[in-house]
Design brief:
The protein is mainly α. The chain has one domain: Sodium:dicarboxylate symporter (Proton glutamate symport protein), CATH 1.10.3860. The chain has 21 helices and no strands. α1 runs parallel beside α13 and α2 runs antiparallel to α9. It is globular, with a radius of gyration of 22 Å. It binds aspartic acid.
Length: 433
């Protein structure tokens, strides 16, 4: 096992986890055993990853920004990053809309299945609606206000405030650029070293990744609802998955076209992060590994990756936006509504904004879907229709979200002349030390 590349080890862990979880569903005591003795290790694994996120953003972003030496370079890179992020998101939503209009998965839902699903999941729907309502009640500039924390310790105190931490780190980095070099050098040396330590901690956590994903997937399978529901939603799931796979192909094409790097190179480099995104359903929890893979295995210089990736993890969610578009139209179809072209165009805008507003945690895309539904006049009770199958789709869309961030970081690095041969020649050298 030791000599096997990390992504294979993780994959084996995932397969064994699914098999073990499935096996346990055959015993009366199986589910409880998994919940009491296996799932906690998965929680520890995710917690360890999340633990790294805030210090990593602080250290790497401060280092990255201060390395730029020049503020105009920062604003140029910032503008480009946001523009490409929005562009890829709009492409994703549009692909989702085309597919859902061609496949029309909502037509295959019978009246009875629809009623059953709405009744079964009515309670959960209520919870999501309330969460979304809290977000909606604030004014139009609230997102901007939320960007600037009034207290950095408070901001760093919750992983939900990642954008605030990013704001502080960039601001701090700009301060460093503007003071005389002899004053900033020791500060920079500190954050340099700090950053190295954090990267080493990620390596250590990744040593346990095969076991971590085993526990996560075993718990997921043992706790999954009955397979019958999945069947009813088969066409809907197929549409989302087809869209997500199209996005992965588009990413590989973009990377090849703009950087000349082959799909094999790209996937070899990023796959551990993808597998982790799949297992944790959280771009935020995956961020430390995404940063490490992109920097050390795809050859993106840290000045770029430390800037582009944390921002991407919080605002760039192509998979989520695609899913929101498909889900919204699917629900409308299932309720027998025909949406006009204008309403569908509106969905492009709301799904793009809703995905930007979604937190990088499991299930967040579904909370924000409430807002997309409300804007388009689609019954919010429809959330209940897609609830049963949301988790597996969340795992897949998170994988796409993370892959999208990695792609954009490579494009930006190339355009800034900051894409090089990766430092780690043998893919898994740094895990074996
Ligand atoms: N789980 C996704 C993420 O962290 C967000 C979503 O629910 O779509 O990227």
């Amino acid at each position: 096992m030791k000599n096997l590349a990390l992504h294979w080890q993780i994959l084996i862990g995932m397969v064994l986890g699914v098999l073990f979880g499935y096996l346990m569903t055959n015993f009366e005591w199986g589910k409880a055993l998994v919940q009491d003795w296996v799932k906690p290790f998965g929680t520890i694994f995710i917690n360890a990853l999340k633990l790294i996120a805030v210090p990593l953003i602080l250290a790497s972003l401060i280092k990255g920004v201060s390395d730029l030496k020049d503020i105009s370079k920062l604003s140029k890179m910032g503008g480009k990053t946001i523009m490409i992020y929005i562009l890829t998101t709009v492409i994703a939503v549009s692909i989702g809309l085309v597919l859902v209009n061609v496949i029309r998965p909502g037509d295959s839902i019978s009246e009875k299945t629809r009623k059953d699903l709405v009744e079964n999941y009515a309670d959960n729907t209520q919870k999501y609606k309330e969460e979304a309502k809290n977000q909606k009640e604030s004014g139009p500039l609230q997102a901007l206000v939320d960007l600037v924390p009034s207290n950095i310790i408070g901001a760093a105190g919750s992983n939900k405030n990642m954008l605030q931490v990013i704001f502080f780190a960039i601001f701090f980095g700009i301060g460093m650029i503007l003071i005389p070099e002899e004053k900033s050098t020791p500060v920079k040396a500190f954050f340099d070293g700090f950053n190295e330590v954090i990267l080493k901690m990620i390596d250590l956590i990744m040593l346990t990744a095969p076991f971590g994903v085993f526990t996560l997937l075993a718990a997921l399978v043992a706790e999954a609802p009955s397979a019958d529901l999945f069947k009813a939603l088969g066409w809907y799931a197929f549409t989302v998955i087809l869209g997500l796979m199209t996005m992965i192909v588009i990413y590989m094409g973009l990377v090849y076209f703009f950087t000349g790097k082959s799909p094999k190179f790209f996937l070899n480099g990023i796959s551990p992060a993808q597998l982790l995104a799949f297992s944790t359903s959280s771009s935020a929890a995956t961020l430390p590994v995404t940063m490490e893979r992109v920097t050390e295995h795809l050859g993106v210089e840290e000045e770029v990756s430390s800037f582009v990736l944390p921002i991407g993890a919080t605002i760039n969610m192509d998979g989520t936006s695609l899913y929101q578009a498909v889900a919204a139209i699917f629900i409308a179809e299932a309720f027998g509504m025909d949406l006009t072209f204008g309403v569908q165009l509106g969905i492009i805008a709301t799904a793009t904004l809703a995905s930007i507003g979604s937190a990088a945690v499991p299930g967040a895309g579904m909370v924000m879907l409430v807002i997309v539904l409300a804007q388009a006049g689609i019954p919010e009770a429809g959330l209940a229709l897609i609830f049963a199958i949301d988790r597996p789709l969340d795992m897949l869309r998170t994988t796409v979200n993370v892959t999208g961030d990695a792609t954009v970081s490579m494009l930006i690095a190339k355009s800034e002349g900051m894409l090089h041969e990766p430092q780690v020649k043998n893919w898994d050298d740094n895990y074996k030390k």
